[in-house]
Amino acid sequence: MKIKTFNYSKSYQLYFLKFVILSFFITSCASNTSSNYNKTGVDELQTYQYLSQQDIQEFNAIILTQKRNIPLSHIEKQILDIAKGYLQKSLLKNEALPKLIALESPTLKFALDPDQVQLLRETDTDYVRVGFQSFDNNGNISLSILAQASIFVEYDLAKVAPKSTLLVDSLHNNGIPVIAILGKARIGTPERVVQAIKTGTRAMDHLFQNREVAFLTGGYKGALDDVYGYTRIGYDRAKDLGAYTLVVMPEAGDEDSHKYVDAKDIVGKMWGDDTPALAGITDGAVVFAGYGSWTKVEVETLLYLKKPVVIINPAQKDSIAIVNFKFGSVKSFRQPEDAVQALLKSIPNAESLIKNAPNNINQLPIRNNQISAKEYYPFPGWFDIISPKTATSRVSPIVLEKETESIEK
Questions:
Q1: What Å distances lie between residue 291 and 171, 178, 336, CA to CA?
Q2: Residue 285, pLDDT score
Q3: Which residue, 210, 158, 153, 150, is CA-closest to 179?
Q4: Which of 35, 128, 253, 352 has a CA-to-CA distance to 379 between 20 and 30 Å?
Q5: What does the alpha-carbon distance between residue 213 and residue 278 come to, in Å, rounded to a whole number?
Q6: pLDDT at 385
Q7: What local confidence, expressed as pLDDT, does residue 409 receive?
Q8: pLDDT score recorded for residue 407
């Protein structure tokens, strides 16, 4: 009789191999269910800490009014979760900001304000914006959902921006066009700020010397955040030149905005709500590179409305380049003067503006030449409390009077 023997060594090896394979499979599954959110210290397997299912349903209900849109992605929900925690004061800014930055991508950006956070989703044909706005009633914080399924919204300018519309009608009746100055609101280092001021003032001076124009900006000053950008340059230099100034912006930026303008309208709640009005009021725009996502949205809206736009980019290799957008292409110039000359050829001439101006319009008001008694400038030595001046007048002295004198001689 044969006695069967059992090979314990081979059996042990077989069981061990099965155990290793099973462990690897479990580890792989767990790894695959993690996301970028793990980089910020939060596991996606957990329920969102601040974002509720009702929030998600409300956001998606608005987004999906455009059939081409898709529901919130997991990453977008994570951004909104952090946003809600920050606005509810459960997360500090220095906690929320790195988490939000880690979740950004080329087609997904965020904007962080003290009382508002929104994300911007870029699609092939449009932009989607969703976020929260907070309201503090004696320590009790309430949040409202903000969402816009498309940036291409038709506004009745006379209703949403009545002050600017009235001034624009009067300007047009006098043959004066409105030019928007667009670009980054936060430029960076003092050296870059100085360079931006020099570039911006070259463009604005050349424009104003060749034709009287009014200047429009998004109104953000940057005093509360200790920053300086093209939204401030467009205002400061317009004051230096004695030009009419207009501001169109949302509620989110009103607290930190320019005070002494000739016309100012608050349109919508979050950044981007104001864009259709800003683009609708202006006759043309100068865009300074490198710009961010919200400036890109402004350019897209201007192209959608068939308004002339030029880009100034001193860093580009060629004197003229073409930049493509969803709704067209824009010429980008290395030299500010070349860009301005191209824009002047594209905007309506004085005769056309006067001809198309409405009847029974108000007379042009006296320009508001005031500036704030004390405002933030990038370098403390720039301002004098007794005799305040703009930052642009300190970096780029006014040249209009000198050039006028040389012409007369």
A1: 29, 21, 16
A2: 97
A3: 210
A4: 253
A5: 16
A6: 52
A7: 39
A8: 36
Amino acid letter, residue 93: K
Q: What CA dihedral angle connects 215, 216, 217 and 221, to 10 degrees?
A: 60
- What's the full length of the chain, in residues? 409
Contact assessment for residue 282 and residue 258, using Cβ atoms and an 8 Å cutoff: no
Strands 245-249 and 263-266, bridge-based pairing: parallel
Mean pLDDT, 10 residues at a time, the chain of 409 residues? 40 49 46 38 61 93 89 94 93 92 93 88 91 86 90 90 95 96 88 90 95 92 82 92 93 84 92 92 95 90 95 95 93 96 96 89 86 60 58 73 42
- From CA 380, how far away is CA 389, in angstroms rounded? 12
Side-chain half-sphere exposure of 42, counting CA atoms within 13 A: 22
